[in-house]
Design goal:
elongated, two-stranded antiparallel sheet, 143 residues
């Protein structure tokens, strides 16, 4: 058996308690249970006492989910993505479209934030006396 094959199996071995995963991920135990209940997490293994045990794969999935949350993706869309992943490679086109749409939304948010930073920089400059105030009518208040 190759080292890579051994590492792949280790990655899938349920070894982390819900408390360890909560600490590593920054999510509460209740959130982890909720993610499992709504189908955002794939099957979570159980130990001999019936307690949840998470794998390295589960931790990596939670990292991805965290990034998707940061993008503003809805929980419903994240659950749909999880369903598509479980369905297999035939869903690549739909997953690709989801990510392209989310990327476009994130880029639009970034542009809005850049405009907000420009306004803040201007106001900071005014209050520090480094920039002359501009009449309100000439400032784009719609952004």
């Amino acid at each position: 058996m190759s080292e890579a094959a051994g590492n792949e199996r280790d990655w899938e071995v349920p070894r982390y308690s819900i408390g360890e995963v909560a600490e590593r991920s920054g999510l509460s135990r209740d959130t982890l249970r909720w993610y499992e209940r709504i189908g955002l997490m794939n099957y979570i293994g159980r130990d001999h006492a019936g307690k949840r045990r998470f794998s390295g794969r589960d931790l990596e999935w939670l990292t991805l989910i965290g990034h998707l949350r940061t993008t503003g993706m809805s929980v419903a869309d994240m659950v749909r993505y999880a369903e598509l992943v479980r369905e297999g490679e035939s869903t690549f086109p739909e997953r690709l479209e989801m990510f392209r749409n989310t990327r476009a939304e994130v880029l639009a948010k970034i542009a809005d934030l850049q405009q907000a930073v420009a306004v803040l920089d201007y106001k900071i400059g005014v209050y520090e006396g480094k920039v002359a105030p501009v009449r309100a009518a000439t400032v784009d208040a719609t952004r």
